[in-house]
């Protein structure tokens, strides 16, 4: 006789093999049923997500996560009058496989949708009575239990429609045609927003990168509120461009490419908007810090501090005296130390950093030369152009034309 814990583990194994499609490697369904002593024949998947789980879990002890999980299982047993199995698929997300048990044998999709919606409503209601907020994605109905992998994937896709929406939602499966007809293919990310992010990554400015990233994400959220896939794809394009920038600056290619692939895969599987944003922010910080390590590990702490201060105020009028005071050094001492370690005078270094950003704006936006100069803190566009030509051996206009060709 199995204990309650053993029985829970067995049914979780059964559910996991069905939603991953790995049962085919174990045995035929009926044989696997006998091996695990399961009688249920699942026909439909529900994916149940605890609303705002990342926020709720912050600063909570590990025991809280176990308690909320156990409370949700109690809700399921109270709400469901049909056979079911379950397994956790990620923190705060559980999949439930149902056998609908229709006495009329009317086991078609319209009936299944109606019955599943009723069941989902009961789960949401029972959870709410325990002050637990959940949203539920519904998969399609399949008579063959080996198709539970498809139903699970459909339920996940349905739950994506909650991405920008509220809490306690029940989201039915939508066909590809429905998704396409409801989709608004909007204009891509404005080049200025993208350039702000990439330019800030290029100089290793964590603060500016996050500010630019937040502006970009807010803009896309407003535009793509009915098109989750477009939003995710466009953000992934920016992440890829950021990674490419880090590679161009000399980071280890095998490490960056592997990390990037894993991150993008994880990002596409994220069903919560708030979690998505936090993941993007954390990974962006990780990329920027790699740039910082590449460019600043050879400098002393005081010069690293000075360069960080410079990056944070690059668009402002900032002088040698201000940075020296920030580093608690005399202007004379700081100036000599800065040039000895970096190989450039203070002003030359500031100009080089600004021109690194200028290159990004010239390559990826249609901003005028005057607008780029103003963006970088130059009051005189002609002065900016002279500096650029001295550094790059061509004017900003010539550089842009050459890159376009």
From TrEMBL:
Keywords per UniProt: DNA-binding, Transcription, Transcription regulation
* Stretches that traverse the bilayer: none
Q: Which SMART domains match?
A: HTH_ARAC (SM00342)
Domain HTH araC/xylS-type residue range list: 304-402
The record's section on SUPFAM superfamilies has: Homeodomain-like
- Reading the lineage from the top rank, the first entry is Bacteria
Has UniProt tagged this entry with the keyword Transmembrane helix?
no
Q: Show the InterPro entries listed in the entry.
A: CdaR_GGDEF (IPR041522), Homeodomain-like_sf (IPR009057), HTH_AraC (IPR018060), HTH_AraC-typ_CS (IPR018062), Tscrpt_reg_AraC-type_HTH (IPR020449)
> What Gene Ontology terms describe what this protein does at the molecular function level?
DNA-binding transcription factor activity; sequence-specific DNA binding
**Name by which UniProt lists this protein:** Arabinose operon regulatory protein AraC
| Organism for this UniProt entry | Brevibacillus laterosporus LMG 15441
